[in-house]
Amino acid sequence: MILPENYYWEAQFNDEVYYKWKAHTQTTICGKISKKKRENQKPKYISEADWTTLLEYWSTEPAIKKSKDAATYRTSNPDGKGMHKHCAGPQSFLKIEYDMMVESGLDEPPPYTELVRKTHTRDGSFIDSRAETLVLEVEEAVAQMETDSVSQTTSTAATPSRLLLNQEFLKRSKTSRGRVYGIGSVQHNNFIPTESVHASLNRSIDTDMRMSSLETNSEAVKTNVETLKSYMTELKGNVVGMKDEMKEELVAT
């Protein structure tokens, strides 16, 4: 890998950088090479010697088996809702998420449900049954949570909808391989190689929710302090008024 020759980072981030580099190349360079392989055309950026080596490897039994297993997995239907389909094309989900954030004018990414709706619908209709079920179930669950929080004081009332949607989405979207269904490369963002993707996302959301709770509590304390100041000012005015009245009574007597 040539990255260390051109960039610098602390040694403790080596695994994370390598994982993200690998995840990115799998959806970009590897995808382009696979397309050239199907078309039986050598890419311009690969030498004849390297292309010959790749062709020889692809013809081996282990490589053929790996390719067949991958094809089977891509077209699998474990829950009876059809194979996974999306309409994002070659564009990475991470790029789509970023574009959605820019378009919204907010400084935070959209909830997973909006991303899945964006990448799995065509002309307003879902093209993936499992994605549709996930989104609708999550949105219904969060709507119910927010309705319940109106009539009672709970932490849910102060938690942003985006975090609640993401939290509920993760509860329902874990695949048999420990990944998250429907959000593509987004699940690899801020991923720590020492833990599973699903666990890493849960940890990140838990941290965000704790921070949100702290910010909410801080605002509540600030409001209470301002209210207390107002009461003290009013009390001080009342005390001054009482003193003035007492002086007037003493003078009158």
List the helices and strands and how they pair.
Blueprint: H1 3-6, H2 14-27, H3 29-39, H4 48-58, H5 61-74, H6 93-104, H7 112-119, E1 121-122, E2 125-126, H8 129-150, H9 161-172, H10 197-252
Antiparallel strand pairs: 1-2
Protein name: Transposase
Pfam family, one: Transposase_24
Organism: Thlaspi arvense (Field penny-cress)
Entry keywords:
253 residues, mainly alpha, two-stranded antiparallel ribbon, 2 strands, Transposase, Probable_transposase_24
What is the H-and-E element order?
HHHHHHHEEHHH
β-strand percent reads under 5%
Could you tell me the mean pLDDT? Answer: 81
Oligomer: single chain
State the end-to-end CA separation: 97 Å
* SS content category: mainly alpha
Share of residues in helices: 55-70%
- Characterize the largest beta sheet: strand count, sense, and whether it forms a barrel: 2 strands, antiparallel
Describe the global form: elongated
Low-pLDDT ranges: none
Give the beta-strand count. Answer: 2
Radius of gyration from the CA trace? 29 Å
Question: How many separate helices?
Answer: 10
Identify the strand order in the major beta sheet: 1-2
Protein name: Transposase
Organism: Thlaspi arvense
Report on the structure:
This protein is mainly α and 253 residues long. The chain has a domain at 83-211. The chain has helices spanning 3-6, 14-27, 29-39, 48-58, 61-74, 93-104, 112-119, 129-150, 161-172, 197-252, and strands at 121-122, 125-126. A two-stranded antiparallel ribbon has the order 1-2. A hairpin with a 2-residue loop joins strand 1 and strand 2 (125-126). Helix 9 runs antiparallel to helix 10 (197-252). It is elongated and about 115 Å long. The protein starts with a helix and ends with a helix. The mean pLDDT is 81. It comes from Thlaspi arvense (Field penny-cress). This is Transposase.
